Amino acid sequence: MFGGVGLLILLLDQITKALALTHLTPGEPVNVIGSLLKFNLIRNPGAAFSLGTGYTPYISAVQITVAIGVVYLSRRLGSAGWAVAFGLLFGGAVGNIIDRIFREPSAFHGHVVDFLQTPHWAIFNVADMAVTSAAILLVIQTLRGVKLDGTREQRR
User: Fold this and answer.
1) Which strand ranges, in their side-by-side order, compose the sheet holding 30-33?
2) Is 128 a residue of the active site?
3) Global pTM?
4) CA dist 111 to 5, 41, 69, 73, Å?
5) Is 99 a catalytic site residue?
6) For the chain, first and last CA: distance in Å?
7) How far is the C-alpha of 102 from the C-alpha of 83, rounded, in Å?
């Protein structure tokens, strides 16, 4: 399940970014659902909210470390919830890592393709949605007392 979710997210992310680059023009937002959802193509050199634009190589290193850590920990997964969360996290992290490594201006300085915009929020992509969803799922699993291996913590 981990691998399937991770691969699905990675493919969705890369396909939607390719479509955005093909069909959208920077600075020309397209309303999709009124003002609730727009397609607005930007290239983000930083992390969330374009923070840390001068730290792209370090952001890349952190994302690579997270992806490796998730793969390492995935060997212990015995819970569908954790497997889905780890798959979302892995697929999202790798989707943005690919941008940072292979997109302009240069390797490990590449700008992430973002194109989804909602009111009062940063412009984001499918990988960002997956990472955020993973974080929520990880919190839920933790609060439910479900361990990585699928066993539950004993409540007193």
Assistant:
1) 30-33, 37-44, 112-117
2) yes
3) 0.91
4) 25, 12, 23, 29
5) no
6) 32
7) 28
Instruction: Look at residues 60, 63, 18, 15 and name the one whose alpha carbon lies nearest to residue 41.
Output: 18
Tokens read off for 6: 């991770």
Task: Report which residue type is found at 114.
Answer: D
- In whole angstroms, give the CA distance from residue 131 to residue 137: 10
Question: Exactly one of 13, 99, 128, 149 is catalytic; which is it?
Answer: 128
pLDDT single digits (tens) 20-71? 999 999 999 999 999 899 999 999 987 766 677 777 888 888 889 999 999 9
**Amino acid in the structure at residue 149:** D
CA–CA gap between residue 14 and residue 20 (Å, rounded): 10
C-alpha span between 69 and 21 (Å, rounded): 31
17 φψ region: left (φ > 0), alpha (ψ -120 to 50), beta (else)? alpha
Radius of gyration of the chain (CA): 17
What token pair was written down for 145?
């007392």
Return left, alpha or beta for 64; rule: phi > 0 is left, psi -120 to 50 is alpha, else beta: alpha
Distance in angstroms (rounded) separating the CA atoms of residues 94 and 67: 7
